[in-house]
# Entry
Amino acid sequence: VPANDRNAGLVVTVDLGGTKILICLFDEDGRVADQEWFLTEARRTPETVVESIVKGIGRVLTRSGTSIAALEGVGIAAAGACDTKSGVVVNGPNLGWRSVPITRWMSDALGLPVWLGNDGNMSALGEHLCGAGRGCNNMVYLTVSTGIGGGIIANGELYVGETGMTAEIGHMVIQSTGPLCPCGKRGCLQTLCSGTALVRNMRERLAMGASSLSMFHPLQLLDLVESKPEEITSHIIFEAARRGDALSLSILEDGARSLGRGLTNLVLLLDPQMLVIGGGLAVHWDQYIAPAANELRRATYPKSLEGLMVVPAVLGDKAASMGARAMVRQRSHKR
Ligand SMILES: [Zn+2]
# Structure
């Protein structure tokens, strides 16, 4: 099908995470016409995962009666460092991928143009165009979850750098003697304040003999923290802190302080108008993000704080897909 016969605006997106894969079909008006998700099962080979994505796209198109030739293109938002020019997932620790030429594989299989972006970058673009950052030309998006990622909107456009591997915010070194990160360095931001970091800190403090108020507490939820360290989740720590557990409060305080240092570095470097924060830990806004923002206010030049807004993301788990759609629209027009 010649490119000019394709249906402008009909786009399929793939949000490729370490845990699950979300496929969306967007109509011409940018609405999700159909979607499907399934588990990534990252232990499979990249070839097998890509094969399952291609099949998933086929199912979505069949269900909605859309011909593959009508699509403008496919946009992938992948968890990992992506070379967006060559369309290669360079390093995706959560996927177990290294140097996977996913756009070539997928465009060979589908006969369509395929573009790739990092999921944090794509979420930034989504929140900028359709979400909390609408109309804001200089913003930084952060996702604080099991890891930390993000994206930068500078002068109204996604900042892509030389290779597309920008805004690896979770790997800014905050504490050079800190915990080892999967990337090989020590004290990366995400080793200090991601959900994974909070849980690791709680387990370590308990193993060193710290006690939690929960041992005196009748509630089973809090008993978990004391008796079954392997079942601790970040949400249990937040719940225990809400109920006054001193150990949980202290772990959250340390985490928020580190997160605040990361935010401070971003503000000093980029002078944004807005920080948009999403991800699983952002739901604990008052307990975690607000104290981090206070640390930022304490540590940054007063001038850079004038008018700076720290706001929650609003697109939830659709942010990366909406950004990936926008990437397809922008890049197919530039071809
Ligand atoms: Zn790292």
In short: The longest helix spans residues 246-270. The pocket of zinc ion is lined by residues 171, 181, 183, 185, 188 (CB under 6 Å).
